[in-house]
Structure prediction request, 474 residues.
Amino acid sequence: MKKHSIWKVKTALKNNNQMTQNNFDIAIVGAGITGLSLAYFLKDTKKRIVLIEKSNALDNTTSKSTAKLSFVQQDIYQKLEKNFGYDISKLYFESQAYAISLMKKIIVENNISCDLEKSNSYLFSMEEENLKILQREKELLTCFGCKCKTAKNLEIPIPVKKAFYVEGNYTFNPVKYMQQITKIVAKKVTIYDNLMVEGIKRQDNYYLLKTKNGVINAKKVVVTNHYPFFIKPYFLPFKNYIKREYVNAAKYSHNENFNAINVDKNLCSIRFYKDYIIYVSNSHRLTNKLDIEKNYCKSRDDFYHFFKKMPEYSWVNQDLITNDYLPVIGEIEKNLYISTGYNAWGMTNGVLGSKIIADLLQNKKNVYASLVNPNRVSAGSILNSIVDALAYIHPYIAAPFYGKNIKVTEEDGVKYNVYEDENGKVHKVRRKCPHLKCNLLFNQEELTWDCPCHGSRFDLDGKLIEGPSKEDIN
Ligand code: FES
Prediction:
């Protein structure tokens, strides 16, 4: 079994971190779907643009996505209706349909070969008690203008109480998209990869972006990382939590290319890619009581239970869930923008974020900008903020759990996690995450150190894999 995403490739993004120039109008930090699509929208503006990516391979958050371009998103519309009212719920639906049409346009106009395929989206429930939720989502989608068609089952062995589907959605291969859009963008935009932005500081009318190879100056900065590394401004760690889910894939014969997701508490999400079925399950909030191995095993057991075979690919995905279920896209301080908080719908919201910010940077109107404005307030968000703040404090005060087969040692007052691998090699790293000092957990499945607070991940020797940390452990 391969313990990485089905899309993974070894190709470097561009392999260039030697700065030939360091003065730009716009700096885009992060080259996932949002950063690359933003560079695409801005490439003909005659602005001096730099795109900076911390890694050198297409192995970022986007590459772990299941890459559904779908406006059927569990029970999102009733959650938004409850938080903000019907009109906002409808506006969010329209923003998702708009994002799908934008993405399709980029792919078609540029002949991007990324396996874009039409795919009916099913919404279903496996539990009698959730049929009302399913029904309400169907009513809302119908009010928004969708034709919802009843389905008896999913044509795969997942027991369904009730289901319906809508047309007009798509699936694609996110890494192929990123590879090809990079080539288009690189003709007009400077790309530095394998270059971590370690700090952003405002000075006069510029931002200074500190990197190991020197400082980059930019009039405007857009941070498109899944989880921006800075705390101030905006205090993002207090306004969201990280949800983890487990993804498994194997060859599976099927007739129709469809995608599906349920409204029940136990996530069950499906899509097909060529001969493969991709199945996502076992979603949970990060916590320092996490038994990582048990969660991987459970997701593979579920896969076997339904499809009677073991997965060929198995990986984990992390999503940033905002406290009011809307993404966070816009200006958080003069000339500093973020686009994140996609609530597990990173493909539609990534493209939406890139277009909104491209429009804001060019003083163009975008009807969805106020919907996702980072400075919005809602009653639901205030309540959820309190819950998130408590959850944020919890890992600092709860008794820590380090993971199995780990020794904890102490030298000169500093605590270390120690793991001896199967070849007898000892890997010793500080116990605290460099981001905000939570205790790290050992992930025996992928041989990584995982932070239960905001999802930073490091390899066995402490090298950063995934932020918000911006540095290695030691
Ligand atoms: Fe925030 Fe570790 S403390 S990611």
The chain has a mean pLDDT of 90. Residues 433, 435-436, 438, 451, 453-456, 468-469 surround FE2/S2 (inorganic) cluster (CB under 6 Å). The chain is about 25% helix and 30% strand. Residues 213 and 271 are 42 Å apart (CA to CA).
